[in-house]
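Hi D.,

Good news: the full-assembly prediction came through. Inputs first.
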Amino acid sequence: MNAPQRPGSFRYAASLLHRRWFASSCAVLLAMLVLASVFADELASERPIICSIGGHVHVLSNVSDASALAGLTRAQFEKEHGPGDWAVWPLVACSAKEACDAPLLAPFAKAAHPLGTDGVGRDVLARLVFGTRSALLVAGIAVAAFVVLGTALGAMAGFFGGGIDFVVGRVIETLSAFPVPLLALVVQALAPHSGVWSLVAVIAALRWTEVARLVRAEVLSLSSLDYVSAARALGASPLRVLYRHVLPLTLSPIVVAAVLGLGQIVLLESALDFLRVGLPASIPTWGEMLSESRDHFTAWWLLLLPGSLVFASVTSTNAIGETLRDALDPRART
Amino acid sequence: MLRYTIRRILWAIPTIFGISIVAFLVTTLIPVPPPLSTSDLASALLRDPSSYDAYIEQRRSLALDLATFVNDSPRDVRSIVAECVAHLAQNDHHATLAAHDLAKVGGAAFPYLLPTLDRLAPDARKRVALALLPVAERMGQGGDARARSPDMAPTFWVQLWEDRSLEFTGPAVRRSVQRLLRGATAGRERDLIEMDTFALPELMGALADPTVDENGVARLSQVASHVSGHDVMVPLAMTSGAQTRIREEWAAWWGTHHQDYVALDGGERIFATLAETRYGRWLRGAATGELGSTARDGELASRRLAQCAPITLSLILAAMFLSFAMAVPIGVVSARRRGERVDHVVAAILFLLYSLPSYVFAEVLMHASPDASVFARAGFAVLVMTTASVAALSRFQRAAMLDVLGQDYVRTARAKGLRETRVLVVHALRNAIVPMVTLAGLQVPFLFGAAIVVEEVFTVPGMGYETLRAVEAHDAAWLVVTVLVVALATTFTLLMSDVAYAVLDPRIRERLLKTRESTR
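Then the structure:
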């Protein structure tokens, strides 16, 4: 057992994550979701991944805009392809946005639509995969934004105190008085150009307060320590002391807050999509699929499949986040 | 204790101020009609003066003519006169509009305009004097040929001021108004009409005076309509309802127009710098509960709120009560059995509940029993909201209980030979339950957020359900009212729970004040 194995270090956190079976399986699940969203085009696309038609080889035509293949569907290709033509198709040869020529609301129809279709004949698997992409993308950007914002403001408030602290404190208190879903949906409803970026901006503007509160408390207690005074006495400028000596030690609570925040944002964003005030309707999302299930009471797969994905992703980030907190913050252990 | 409460209330003031700013900023997201250019306005004025007036009135009623937060040059009659005279003197492309505006301001402008008329260049003097022709017509002097002729008009107005300047004083107007109220004769009414808009401040003061009777209100309103050009319907047979309506209409009109007829000095000017802004106007409306009517059926937003709020409030309170009732025993048991099988099972269940998306759970319930009655759906709504909050509360209760169970006095109680339930409930829980009070305040915004989705799924006609209907109808008034009310309610409950916490735990008073942010 060597030195880094003590509680509080990131290596210890990794080993604790490894030791807890539930948290580690959650980590695997989350990694699979990330992979699915990265390779969404390889899982579901109306165009082949690689194909050779009439001597021309199209590589990754599912990602690039291959105008030569416009209008090509898998059924058509298999019926009409000439000798020497071949193609490698994605798991589902169907777009997430447009209806395929499949029966509406078919549960687990055929190999062509392994998870069935929805009320307008779109493939459910394709929509789940692209829904994963939009959920993780929005959550990732929003979390990055509010962590940066919260760290900067919280650190300034805790380190410089005085007027900045007062103002930041009042702003935090003000923003905490609003239920986040309410303000987010009101802004999305009223803003003239609501879309992905307004959603991310609203979430970041409302959620930075938690990170700021954490960082402020941490910076406040760190700046009274002797080594900080020592750094000051050596002539380091205040910004250097903050950046080099104080902020690095606030990393663990920030990481924990970011991981827990990821699940919270996925939850918030899918709830807004469920209420149809989140992302634009042209983007496939879990929440929008769930809201569609309200019109089709018998189509249980439209409810349970995206619902369990939301549940699974929130559970995963919570399990990982809490394991990290147990490992990184020994005081919080129970 | 009182000192703590007062300090806590003072702390809340900047928060309430901040909340009002956020809610106001939400209103600025609402799309507004774009402003017209000066040349468009001038041609609109030439074509149809009433359409120009309607345009100006519309922008005023939305406070679009004002700065957002700080009005560095608040409009008053003096600045309007100076501006209009400057445009008329230069005869630039604003001149048509300036002539119209000056005529609209009318008699109120005389003390700032007529004494200086001689100092203008001859051409400018003529243009200004001719611009005042509609005022002469309002005053009943339109028949005077001098007012109409470009050469004679300046003399007409200068002479009028020489003859009548003594009447254009506050006390003189007040006397005329009193005379009119004592008994209406054509002569007394004409006295007021001859002072034109200069009489408006006194007329409005009398209209706001509750001792003035119905006939007085009718008379005053007729004179005011004549001089201001703002029509307020006066029925032939006055009733007390009509009287209230007339008073309200004039009060609202004066609220947005008084700066056209009054000169601001000293303190008033400084006050107007902050008050005559879009934010200031909005804040005054919010303070008096006038936040507009819903776009859907024109009902007052505040009245609609009074119908929906009790439903949502009872959902929230029921869910809060249930989740506290469940969380306290769960927390106590799992703290007592720390590390045992029960603790692990409870922790696992709570963890899953904690991550369960409430809207998915609600939707599953709805799919399972689509034909549920209203009461069953309300019960479902409470159930879903309870599961959303019980996990966090239980975990908090467990941690608080663990804290207390490690204390010496608990060991002493056990050593005395007390029964375990008595130790747990009487000695330990009594202290461990106190920190839960702070969570009660934080539950309000959380449960309201949950209520939005849950009410939508179970079609419970509360605030959340109404809010989503308002989103569909782009009903901005309702959305802003909801945001404001919920945030103020949250601030209030946080304040209450902080005070309650300090009452229950005297140690906390000083500490809470010093480290409020970091402990939360």
